[in-house]
Design a protein that fits this description.
The complex is a heterodimer of chains A (512) and B (493). Chain A is α/β, with parallel strands linked by helices and 512 residues long. Chain A folds into three domains: 71-209, Rossmann fold (3-Layer(aba) Sandwich); 220-336, Nitrogenase molybdenum iron protein domain (Rossmann fold), CATH 3.40.50.1980; 340-496, Rossmann fold. In chain A, 47% of the residues lie in helices and 11% in strands. Chain A contains 21 helices and 13 strands. In chain A, the strands form three sheets. In chain A, strands 11-10-9-12-13 form a five-stranded parallel beta sheet, sandwiched between helices. In chain A, strands 6-5-7-8 form a four-stranded parallel beta sheet, with helices on both faces. A three-stranded parallel beta sheet of chain A has the order 3-2-4, sandwiched between helices. In chain A, α14 (296-304) links the parallel β7 and β8. Chain A is globular. Helices cover 44% and strands 13% of the residues of chain B. The longest helix of chain B has 29 residues, at 322-350. Chain B starts with 12 loop residues before the first helix and ends in a 21-residue tail after the last helix. In chain B, strands 1-12-11-10-13-14 form a six-stranded mixed beta sheet, with helices on both faces. Chain B has three domains: 13-62 and 351-478, Nitrogenase molybdenum iron protein domain (Rossmann fold, 3-Layer(aba) Sandwich); 68-193, Rossmann fold (3-Layer(aba) Sandwich), CATH 3.40.50.1980; 226-334, 3-Layer(aba) Sandwich (Rossmann fold), CATH 3.40.50. Classes of the chains: A alpha/beta (512), B alpha/beta (493). At the A-B interface, α2, α3, α4, β1 and α6 of A face α3, α4, β3, α5 and α6 of B.
C-alpha cells in the first residue's frame, strides 16, 4: 500500500510510489493515445534550438505565458492604498473575484473589492442599475470613506460612462451627494496593471484636487507605483524620509492593508494614505514617482497643478538611491543625513566583501518596466552581466531607455532588451543563450525547471514563496536585501554542485 | 445518494435563525429582501435546504462567485492536458487563472502537454475595434507551428468576444478543417449566466457539439467493466487516488473527465458501461446527454471519507457482476486497517470541533461525512453556484438546524464566523486570510490549500492530517498579548 497512517504521504511523495507510477504508465499506454516517446523527445530537443527560437520570435498573434496582468488589477491595488477606500469594479463579477484572489495569493492577505456584477442584460441595456444598486449596497454594508470605481473590459466595450453614472447615483441617493467616488476607466485591452495603477491614481488625485486652490508648500508627494514589495518598500521609504526630516505624503500606501496583524479581529480597512493628506497633496512643492511607467498621467496632473515633478525607475542599490535622495534633498533643501550615508557605506562594504561571487555572473531579468531598470542598474553596479532583460508590458520607449543604461556600462555589453515579449520567448532565449541566474516572479519557475536557470523571486507575483515582500528591496537597504538573496542562490548552487562525497566535494568549502 | 449514519448531533436552530436576522438588518431594504431568500436553517424532513439559488448576485455586496469563463476554462476544459486552451480576449482572465486550479497531470509541459501554461490573444484596442477573428485564425496557425504535438485547440471566449460580434465558430470550423484537429469554440464570456455554473454547462455542450462523433477514435476494444470518472479535476491528484480504487475492484477506467485527461479520453467516454460522476454540478449535463444518446447510465458517487467511500464502492459494484462486487468488498477490507488507524490517530484531536463550509458546487455536501468520520460537526454549509437540485441533495448530509447560505457575501460570512466562532472554516483563497486574522483556523477547499489528494482512502489520510494541523497548530494560542487584560482566547482551545 502506498499510503500509511504512520507516515502520511501527500502528493509530493504519494505519487512517486510504484502503485501510482504503474497506474500512470497503464493509463498513458491504454487510454491516452500519446505521441511516441521518440517523437516527444525530438520535438522537445527542437524546441531548444535556434531554429525554434526564430520561429518563436516571429509569431505575431499568439501570446504564451506573459508576465503582465490587466488594468483593473492595478486599479484595485491602487485604491487599497488610501484610507478607508473601497474598490468598486464596474463590469462582470468574475474579474473582481480574480483580482482579489490574485492579490491574496501574493500577499497572503485579504483583498477586498466589490463588483457591480453585470450580467447579460446589463450588456444589452448598460450597467446603470448595477451601478446604482451596487454603490448603495457597498456604501451601507462596508462603510467606506470613499469608493473608487474602475472598469472591466465588458463595461468598456459597451461604453458605460462612469462620470454620468456616478452623478446619477448621487442624484438618486445611492450615496450622499458629498460622498467621495473617484473613478477611472481601466480597460484591460490597453496597457497592463501598471497602466491601471496610473489611471486610478490620476482619478483619485483629480477627484480630490480638482477645484482646489493651490497654496504652494514645502511638502513632497511620493508615488511608489504598483509594487509586490510595497509592504517592505514603503516602510523603508518612510524611514528614509523620516531620517531626512522630510514631510512626504506617500500617494498610495497599501503597506498596512497588505500586512495586517492576526489579533482576533478582521478589519477591512487599515492604514492607507489619509484622505486629508491626499487633499493637501495639491499644495506639495513637488511630486516624485518611484516608478515612471506607473505614473505618467499622475505626474502630468501634478505638473499641471503647478508642482515640480521627477520620476525614477524603482531606485535601489547605490547610484539610483543616491539620485533619489539627492532629488529629495534638492526639492526640500534638507541635507542627506549621516545615518543614510552610513547605510550607503555599509551596502558598498557588503558589495565589496562579496564581489567575487557576483562579478561576471550572467543574469536574466524579467518583470514590470521600472523593476527591470532598477534591478539591472544594481546588477551593473555589482559587476554582474545582464544578458536578457524582458518586460511583457515594456514599451519601445522603455526599451530605448533600458538600452541606453546597459550600453553605458562595460558589464552591459551583452545585454539584449526585449520589450513586449513573453516568457515563452524567454524560454527560447534561455535555451539558446542561457544565463547563470534569473530574477523575476514566480512565473519564472517553469523556466527554471525547463532551462535549468536558478530563479530569484523578487517581483510580482510571488505565489510560491512566503513573506519576502515584507522586506524592502528599495533603497540602500533594499540593495542589501537583494544582494543577500542573490548570494544565497549562488552559494546554494555552489554547494549543490560540490556535495557528492568522494566525487566532487573537494570544493565543498566551509568558508566562502 | 441516501443519508448515512455517522455521528449524532443537532445544530442550534434558534441561534442560527437569529444570525440570519442580524445580517439582514445591515442591508438596504431591497437587498435584505433578496438576500433573505438565500439564507436558511435546515429542517429535518424537508425536501431541500429552503434557499433560492442560481440567481444573479447583488451588485456591491462582495459575492465570492466567479464567472462562466472560470467555469469553462478554469474547471472543465483547462485540465484536458494534450489540448491548447486559448483564453481569447484581454490578458487578465488567462493570467489570473494560470496554474491556479492544481489539476495535476503527467506529461511534458510545452511539448505534449499544456496544462500549466497561459495561451492568450492578449486583445489590444485594435482587436476590440476591428474584431479578433483574424488574430484568432493566425493564432491557431502559430500554435500548430510552435506546438505541433497539440491534439486540438479550444477557444475560451472572454467578455469582449461576445460583445463585438466576432464569429469564433466560423474561424474554429475553418481552421479545424485546415489543421485536421478539433478546434472548439466555447462561448463562455464572463457576463453569461450568474456564476461559474453556466460556464460548466456551456463547456459540456461544447464537448457534445465539437468532440463527440466528430472523428473515428483510434482502435479501442471495449470490456464489460469500462467506466469513466466524470467531474473529478484531479486537484492535488484526487482523480488518481480515486482511479486506483476503481481499478483495484476490477473496473477499467477508460477516461478521466477532465483531470489528467486527453482528447482521446473525451472522445471515447460514450463507449463506457457506466459513467461515475463526482462533481454533479459541473458535469451532469454531459452525463445526461450520454445517457440519452448513447445509453450510458450514470451514477453519482462520493469518495470523501471512509464511510462514503465504502458506500460508493458498493453502489458502483451493484451495476456489475459478482466479480466486481467481491472486488469492492476486497478493496474496502484492504484499506480498513489504514483508515481506522487514521481515525484513531486524529479523532481524539478533532472530535466535537465545529466546521463551516462554503465552497463550489459539490464539496459543501460531499465532504460532510468525511468530517464526521473524524468526529467533527458541520454547523453551516453553502454553495457559490449550486442549483436547487444541489440543495435537495444536501439534505442527505446535513443535520437539523444547520445554517445554510447561498452565494454568501463577504459581510455575511465574516458576521457568521465572528458569531459562531467555529473551530474550522473551509472555503477559498479570498476568505482564508480574513478568517485566520479572526483567530479561526481555515483550510482552502478549492485547491486543498496546496495539499491533496483528498479523494479515496489515500486521500482521506491527507485530509485528516491537514484538518488536524490547521486546527491544532500552537500559533492559535498566541494571539493575545500576555499584558492585555484577561479575556476569552479568540482561538479554539
Amino acid at each position: 500500500m502506498p499510503q500509511s497512517a504512520d507516515q502520511i504521504k501527500d502528493h509530493v511523495s504519494l505519487f512517486k510510489e510504484p502503485e501510482y507510477q504503474e497506474m500512470f504508465a497503464r493509463k498513458r499506454e491504454q487510454f491516452e493515445c500519446p505521441h511516441p516517446p521518440e517523437r516527444v523527445a525530438e520535438v522537445e530537443q527542437w524546441m531548444k534550438s535556434w531554429d525554434y527560437r526564430e520561429k518563436n520570435l516571429s509569431r505575431e498573434a499568439l501570446t504564451v505565458n506573459p508576465a503582465k496582468a490587466c488594468q483593473p488589477l492595478g486599479a484595485v491595488f491602487c485604491a487599497a492604498g488610501f484610507e478607508g477606500m473601497l474598490s468598486f469594479i464596474h463590469g462582470s463579477q468574475g474579474c473582481t473575484a480574480y483580482f482579489r484572489s490574485h492579490l491574496s495569493r501574493h500577499f497572503k492577505e485579504p483583498s477586498s473589492a466589490v463588483s457591480s456584477n453585470m450580467t447579460e442584460d446589463a450588456a444589452v441595456f448598460g450597467g446603470l442599475n448595477n451601478m446604482l444598486d451596487g454603490l448603495q449596497n457597498a456604501h451601507q454594508l462596508y462603510k467606506p470613506k470613499a469608493i473608487a470605481v474602475g472598469t472591466t473590459c465588458m463595461a468598456e466595450v459597451i461604453g458605460d460612462d462612469l462620470q454620468a453614472f456616478i452623478a446619477k447615483a448621487k442624484q438618486q441617493g445611492s450615496v450622499p451627494e458629498d460622498f467621495d467616488v473617484p473613478y477611472a476607466h481601466t480597460p484591460s485591452f490597453i496597457g497592463s496593471h501598471v497602466t491601471g495603477y496610473d489611471n486610478m491614481l490620476e482619478g483619485i488625485l483629480k477627484h480630490y484636487w480638482e477645484g482646489a486652490t493651490r497654496e504652494p508648500g514645502e511638502t513632497l508627494n511620493i508615488i511608489p507605483g504598483f509594487d509586490g514589495f510595497c509592504v517592505g518598500n514603503i516602510r523603508e521609504l518612510k524611514r528614509m524620509m523620516g531620517l531626512m526630516g522630510v514631510e512626504a505624503t506617500i500617494m498610495c500606501d497599501p503597506s498596512d492593508v497588505y500586512d495586517m496583524p492576526s489579533d482576533g479581529t478582521f478589519t477591512m480597512y487599515s492604514g492607507g494614505t489619509p484622505i486629508e493628506a491626499v487633499k493637501g497633496g495639491v499644495n506639495a512643492k513637488a511630486t516624485i514617482s518611484l516608478q515612471e511607467y506607473c505614473s505618467k498621467k499622475s505626474l502630468t496632473l501634478a505638473e499641471s497643478s503647478g508642482q515640480e515633478v521627477a520620476a525614477f525607475n524603482y531606485p535601489l542599490g547605490v547610484a539610483a538611491t543616491d539620485e533619489f535622495l539627492m532629488k529629495v534633498s534638492a526639492f526640500t533643501g534638507k541635507p542627506i543625513p549621516a545615518q543614510l550615508e552610513l547605510e550607503r557605506g555599509r551596502l558598498i562594504d557588503a558589495m565589496t566583501d562579496s564581489m567575487a561571487y557576483v562579478h561576471g555572473k550572467t543574469f536574466t531579468v524579467f518583470g514590470d518596466p521600472d523593476f527591470c531598470i532598477g534591478v539591472t542598474r544594481f546588477l551593473l553596479e555589482l559587476g554582474a552581466e545582464p544578458v536578457h532583460i524582458l518586460s511583457s508590458n515594456g514599451s519601445k520607449a522603455w526599451a530605448k531607455k533600458m538600452k541606453a543604461i546597459v550600453t553605458a556600462s562595460p558589464y552591459g555589453k551583452r545585454a539584449q532588451v526585449w520589450p513586449g515579449n513573453d516568457l515563452w520567448h524567454l524560454r527560447s532565449f534561455l535555451h539558446t543563450e542561457p544565463t547563470d541566474l534569473m530574477i523575476g516572479s514566480s512565473y519564472g519557475k517553469y523556466l527554471e525547471r525547463d532551462c535549468g536557470v536558478p530563479l530569484i523571486r523578487l517581483s510580482f507575483p510571488i505565489f510560491d514563496r512566503h513573506h519576502h515582500h515584507r522586506f524592502p528591496i528599495f533603497g540602500y537597504q533594499g540593495g542589501l536585501q537583494m544582494l543577500v538573496r542573490i548570494l544565497d542562490k549562488v552559494f546554494d548552487g555552489l554547494d549543490a554542485q560540490t556535495n557528492i562525497a568522494g566525487e566532487n566535494d573537494m570544493s565543498f568549502d566551509l568558508t566562502r | 445518494m441516501t443519508a448515512i449514519k455517522t455521528i449524532d448531533y443537532r445544530n442550534d436552530r434558534e441561534f442560527h435563525e437569529k444570525l440570519i436576522e442580524e445580517v439582514l438588518e445591515s442591508y438596504p431594504e431591497k437587498t435584505a429582501k433578496k438576500r433573505a431568500k438565500h439564507l436558511s436553517v435546515t429542517q429535518d424532513g424537508a425536501s431541500d435546504c429552503g434557499v433560492k439559488s442560481n440567481i444573479k448576485s447583488i451588485p456591491g455586496v462582495m459575492s465570492i462567485r466567479g464567472c462562466a469563463y472560470a467555469g469553462s476554462k478554469g474547471v472543465v476544459w483547462g485540465p484536458v492536458k494534450d489540448m491548447v486552451h486559448i483564453s481569447h480576449g484581454p490578458v487578465g482572465c488567462g493570467q489570473y487563472s494560470w496554474s491556479q486550479r492544481r489539476n495535476y497531470y503527467v506529461g511534458t509541459t510545452g511539448v505534449d502537454s499544456f496544462g500549466t501554461m497561459q495561451f492568450t490573444s492578449d486583445f489590444q484596442e485594435r482587436d476590440i475595434v476591428f474584431g479578433g477573428d483574424k488574430k484568432l485564425k493566425k493564432m491557431i496557425d502559430e500554435i500548430e507551428e510552435l506546438f505541433p504535438l497539440n491534439k486540438g485547440i479550444s477557444v475560451m471566449s472572454e467578455c469582449p468576444v461576445g460583445l463585438i460580434g466576432d464569429d469564433i465558430e466560423a474561424v474554429a470550423k475553418e481552421r479545424g478543417t485546415a489543421i485536421g484537429k478539433p478546434v472548439v469554440p466555447v462561448r463562455c464570456e464572463g457576463f453569461r449566466g450568474v456564476s461559474q455554473s453556466l460556464g460548466h454547462h456551456i463547456a459540456n455542450d461544447a464537448v457534445r457539439d465539437f468532440i463527440f462523433d466528430k472523428r473515428e477514435p483510434e482502435a479501442f476494444e471495449s470490456t464489460p467493466y469500462d467506466v469513466v470518472i466524470i467531474g473529478d479535476y484531479n486537484i492535488g491528484g484526487d482523480g488518481w487516488s480515486s482511479r486506483r480504487l476503481l481499478e483495484e475492484m476490477g473496473l477499467r477506467v477508460i477516461a478521466q473527465w477532465t483531470g489528467d485527461s486527453t482528447l482521446s479520453e473525451l472522445e471515447r467516454a460514450p463507449k463506457a458501461k457506466l459513467n461515475l460522476i463526482h462533481c454533479y454540478r459541473s458535469m451532469n449535463y454531459i452525463s445526461r446527454h450520454m445517457e440519452e444518446k448513447y445509453g450510458v447510465p450514470w451514477l453519482e458517487f462520493n469518495f470523501f471519507g471512509p464511510s462514503r467511500i465504502a458506500m460508493s464502492l458498493r453502489m458502483i459494484a451493484e451495476h456489475f457482476d459478482d466479480k466486481i462486487k467481491e472486488g469492492a468488498e476486497r478493496v474496502i477490507e484492504k484499506y480498513k486497517a489504514m483508515s481506522d488507524q487514521v481515525i484513531e490517530t486524529f479523532r481524539p484531536r478533532l472530535a466535537g470541533k465545529k466546521v463551516m463550509l462554503y465552497v463550489g458546487g459539490l464539496r459543501p455536501r460531499h465532504m460532510i461525512n468525511a468530517y464526521e468520520d473524524l468526529g467533527m460537526e458541520i454547523v453551516g454549509a453553502g454553495y457559490e453556484f449550486a442549483h436547487r437540485d444541489d440543495y435537495q441533495r444536501t439534505m442527505d448530509y446535513v443535520k437539523d438546524g444547520t445554517l445554510i447560505y447561498d452565494d454568501i457575501t463577504a459581510y455575511e460570512m465574516e458576521h457568521f464566523i465572528q458569531r459562531i466562532r467555529p473551530d474550522l472554516v473551509g472555503s477559498g483563497i479570498k476568505e482564508k486570510y480574513s478568517t485566520q486574522k479572526m483567530g479561526v483556523p481555515f483550510r482552502q477547499l478549492h485547491s486543498w490549500d496546496y495539499s491533496g489528494p483528498y479523494h479515496g482512502y489515500d486521500g482521506f489520510a491527507v485530509f485528516a492530517r491537514d484538518m488536524d494541523m490547521a486546527i491544532n497548530n500552537p500559533a492559535w494560542n498566541l494571539f493575545k498579548a500576555p499584558w492585555k487584560a484577561a479575556e476569552p482566547a479568540p482561538a479554539s482551545a
